[in-house]
From TrEMBL:
<dbReference type="InterPro" id="IPR002207">
    <property type="entry name" value="Peroxidase_I"/>
</dbReference>
<keyword id="KW-0732">Signal</keyword>
<dbReference type="GO" id="GO:0004601">
    <property type="term" value="F:peroxidase activity"/>
</dbReference>
<dbReference type="GO" id="GO:0034599">
    <property type="term" value="P:cellular response to oxidative stress"/>
</dbReference>
<keyword id="KW-0408">Iron</keyword>
<feature type="domain" description="Plant heme peroxidase family profile">
    <location>
        <begin position="23"/>
        <end position="303"/>
    </location>
</feature>
<keyword id="KW-0349">Heme</keyword>
<dbReference type="InterPro" id="IPR010255">
    <property type="entry name" value="Haem_peroxidase_sf"/>
</dbReference>
<dbReference type="InterPro" id="IPR044831">
    <property type="entry name" value="Ccp1-like"/>
</dbReference>
<keyword id="KW-0479">Metal-binding</keyword>
<dbReference type="InterPro" id="IPR002016">
    <property type="entry name" value="Haem_peroxidase"/>
</dbReference>
<keyword id="KW-0575">Peroxidase</keyword>
<dbReference type="GO" id="GO:0046872">
    <property type="term" value="F:metal ion binding"/>
</dbReference>
<dbReference type="Pfam" id="PF00141">
    <property type="entry name" value="peroxidase"/>
</dbReference>
<dbReference type="GO" id="GO:0000302">
    <property type="term" value="P:response to reactive oxygen species"/>
</dbReference>
<dbReference type="GO" id="GO:0042744">
    <property type="term" value="P:hydrogen peroxide catabolic process"/>
</dbReference>
<protein>
    <recommendedName>
        <fullName>Peroxidase</fullName>
        <ecNumber>1.11.1.-</ecNumber>
    </recommendedName>
</protein>
Length: 510
């Protein structure tokens, strides 16, 4: 896709993982010191959410209904709400909780050393609980076979899903006292017993230890035979699937990749997922126009991503990166260019090499800007790569735009306001308003519900730049703290034309 796109926020989190990355990179990162692996909790949450799917009715699936189901014994423990509470800050009009649950699973598997799973956004959050169809360890094999069949997985696939899921994390005594005993200590307050000897690595040890008779999986070889569901499941086809996994690590990885891809894409039939999201090679990052001290300024960052060996070896300080813009009349000029400087420290991506470059360009307000391209190379002696956003350049519109550094909550009054700049020489201004979407809490789940409100923009007066007038609007967030992303559309009708600008941001303080 090209920028801007409806899934920009998810693409950012997929590529840069600013919010989720810290908790799952490395895979062994605990939620709290000594307690629970975030990676394992998030992967388990994805399966439990998906497990409400029914292939006959087409209802349920990965739809964040799990938020309404956390009081059920089958979802025992804090993992589900712990996970959702992490994910809430990423929710927005364009990033549903269910898309975030799926994204988290994809990032976890990759971060733990597993396969790259193609990620498709577009999930829609449920408004109520689904059926109680998550398997529990004390149930018998016939029950599990029929539960997985309802979810769309045959016996071989059931064995695969369980083995692939149980290659990280383990079972906690605090939640499963009938399965685990004598494991709670000062350094292990939840009494976790791991599924295999590499509990924070996505590898085939869950299978090789099982086949070689050295399994430590507490729901395969635990003292309570009733809750040894992994043993019943692993042996359900005479150990054929587990033997295949044990003898061939690559086969394990590829099977887990395709099974988990199906797992995260198991959604209600009414939901149609978008195309696979992949990191954009060049993307603006919090780049926006502003009227600052009497000038029109383009400021923010440009992100450059690549999977090439040359990119991996690059030193960002030596990379030539030039932003070339086109003015409002569609004209280019050799002087419409600025070199960008590398941002420090470098950022990482699970998928390849990633570098950020800072832009702060004072534009001629009379000539303005309508788009730009980025010419760059990973090595100063290599030919330049032309980053033109699929051919058309990166579009910008300088007639009516948000002043993003003035989107903030007043510390004293608690009021959140937005400031916009609108050209005053383009004809009479008709309607000028913002439409903003934000999350509000709802009963029965920690998942937020998105609400959209429209508010007129009010002219404050002339800005520090005579060509632009300053407008403002007060947001009504219903007293909700501004922890979440707010997607705001600005619409201004000027001289028979409609100009729009959109940004997604959680407001700062002012
Ligand atoms: C018959 C099916 C299944 C049963 C009975 C089952 C049972 C369990 C149990 C009892 C735990 C311990 C939870 C805790 O103490 O916090 C657990 C953990 C886990 N399960 Fe499953 N599970 C099943 C299938 C799956 C599948 C298909 C996945 C795939 C993603 C999965 C992923 C996980 C993960 C990652 C953990 C570790 C959680 C942690 O360490 O916090 N499980 N499972």
């Amino acid at each position: 896709y090209v920028w801007p796109g409806p899934y920009d926020l998810l693409e950012d989190e997929y590529t840069v993982s600013t919010v989720l990355g810290d908790f799952i990179e490395p895979c062994s990162a605990p939620v709290l010191p000594g307690i629970r692996l975030a990676a394992a909790e998030w992967l388990r949450t994805a399966y439990h959410d998906m497990a409400t799917h029914n292939v006959s009715t087409g209802l349920g699936g990965l739809d964040a209904s799990i938020g309404f189901e956390t009081d059920r014994p089958q979802n025992i423990g804090s993992a589900m709400n712990d996970s959702l509470n992490f994910f809430v800050s990423l929710q927005s009009r364009t990033s549903s909780m269910s898309d975030i649950i799926a994204l988290a699973a994809v990032l976890v598997v990759k971060s733990c050393g597993g396969p790259g799973i193609p990620y498709r956004p577009g999930r829609i959050d449920a408004t109520e609980a689904g059926p109680a169809t998550v398997p529990e360890p004390q149930q018998d094999l016939a029950t599990h076979i029929s539960m997985f069949a309802s979810q769309g997985f045959n016996v071989t696939e059931m064995i695969g899903l369980v083995a692939c899921g149980h290659t990280i994390g383990g079972v906690h005594q605090v939640d499963f006292p009938f399965t685990i005993e004598n494991s709670i200590t000062d350094s292990n307050p939840d009494g976790i017993v791991h599924f295999d000897d590499t509990f924070a690595t996505f590898d085939n040890h869950i299978a090789s230890q099982w086949i070689s008779g050295q399994s430590v999986d507490p729901i395969a070889v635990g003292f309570n035979a009733t809750t040894n569901s992994d043993a019943r499941i692993f042996a359900a086809d005479g150990n054929a699937t587990m033997s295949g996994f044990a003898s061939n690590p690559d086969h394990f990885q590829s099977q887990c990749g395709s099974l988990f891809e199906r797992m995260v894409n198991t959604v209600p039939n009414s939901v149609h997922l978008a195309d696979v999201l992949e990191p954009l090679p060049v993307k603006p990052h919090r780049l926006s126009l502003a009227v600052t001290d009497g000038s029109l300024v383009l400021a923010g960052q440009i992100r450059i991503f690549s999977t090439s060996a040359e990119a991996a070896a690059a030193s960002p300080d030596d990379m030539p990166v030039t932003l070339r813009w086109t003015d409002r009349n569609g004209k280019t000029n050799a002087t419409y260019a600025a070199s960008l400087t590398a941002d420090f420290p470098p950022t990482t991506s699970l998928w390849g090499s990633l570098y950020f470059f800072n832009a702060k360009i004072v534009l001629d307000a009379g000539l303005g800007i309508s788009s730009f391209v980025i010419d760059y190379a990973f090595d100063p002696s290599s030919p330049l790569i032309h980053g033109d956003n699929g051919g058309g350049g990166f579009p910008l519109q300088d007639i009516a735009f948000f002043q993003s550094n003035q989107f903030c909550t007043n510390i004293t009054t608690g009021d959140t306001s937005v400031t916009a700049m609108i050209r005053n020489d383009m004809g009479p201004i008709g309607d000028a308003y913002i439409e903003y979407t934000f999350g509000v809490s709802q009963p029965g789940t920690v998942v937020l519900r998105q609400v959209t409100v429209r508010t007129a923009l009010t002219r404050v007066g002339n800005s520090s730049l005579p060509l632009y007038d300053e407008y403002t609007a007060l947001l009504d967030l219903g007293g909700f703290p501004t922890i979440t992303n707010i997607v705001t559309d600005l619409v201004a009708e000027i001289g028979q034309k409609t100009y729009t600008d959109v940004f997604t941001l959680s407001p700062g303080f002012c």
